[in-house]
UniProtKB/TrEMBL annotation:
Protein source organism: Desulfonema limicola
Protein name: Flavin prenyltransferase UbiX
Family: Belongs to the UbiX/PAD1 family.
Catalyzed chemical reaction(s): dimethylallyl phosphate + FMNH2 = prenylated FMNH2 + phosphate
UniProt EC number: 2.5.1.129
Coiled-coil parts of chain: none
Entry keywords, A to Z: Flavoprotein, FMN, Prenyltransferase, Transferase
Molecular function (Gene Ontology), one example: carboxy-lyase activity
Entry binding sites for FMN: 11-13, 37, 100-103, 135
InterPro entries per UniProt: Flavin_trans-like, Flavoprotein, UbiX-like
Functional summary from the UniProt entry: Flavin prenyltransferase that catalyzes the synthesis of the prenylated FMN cofactor (prenyl-FMN) for 4-hydroxy-3-polyprenylbenzoic acid decarboxylase UbiD. The prenyltransferase is metal-independent and links a dimethylallyl moiety from dimethylallyl monophosphate (DMAP) to the flavin N5 and C6 atoms of FMN.
Binding site for dimethylallyl phosphate: 165, 181
Domain Flavoprotein: residue ranges: 3-184
SUPFAM superfamilies, per database record: Homo-oligomeric flavin-containing Cys decarboxylases, HFCD
Phylogenetic classification of the source organism: Bacteria, Pseudomonadati, Thermodesulfobacteriota, Desulfobacteria, Desulfobacterales
Amino acid sequence: MSKKIVVAICGASGSIYGIRILKALLEKPVEVFLTLSEAGKQVLAHETGYNGEKIEIFLKNQGLRIHEKAVLNIYDVKNLFAPPASGSFRHNGMVIAPCSMKTLGAIASGIADDLIHRAADVCLKEKKPLVLLTRETPLNIIHIENMKKAALAGATIMPPCPGFYTRPKTIMEIIDNTAARVLDQLDIETDTIRWGDKDL
């Protein structure tokens, strides 16, 4: 049975992280449940040139080769009837990339007023992996306390901090290193270079 992963893209800078994670997932036999916040769509357009076309077309233009057994489901952020909004929906984890401080605050406070917040809340209560690719710097004490609360509730706080021991030659290689580390958290195999590999 293929894995089912929930992916959310929020309005923090760094939407390319969400796109490259999507790409990495859909090149495997994985079923993805995707939602974008309204701010996430705006930032994606500003940072990548996304013009509102179908996300599948955009991903293919980014070099995606969809696995024959991969499935992409897309839901409006206001749709609280979508499968990830329910604790009875069985899946293998969720990643929010990038995760804005607004979304982090909502998760830390137990606020579930849209699909992203609700799906994250469900992950915590159902003890499923929840990876938050938090994107902000510098951090104030409110951000840090919210990260602590989310972590204590079961989330994995994962700022995009790539390893440079892989000697990346492009920005995309740096981003893909982080994407691979996210897939590690979701127990999905990747071919990323790892510390100790002979290729280093």
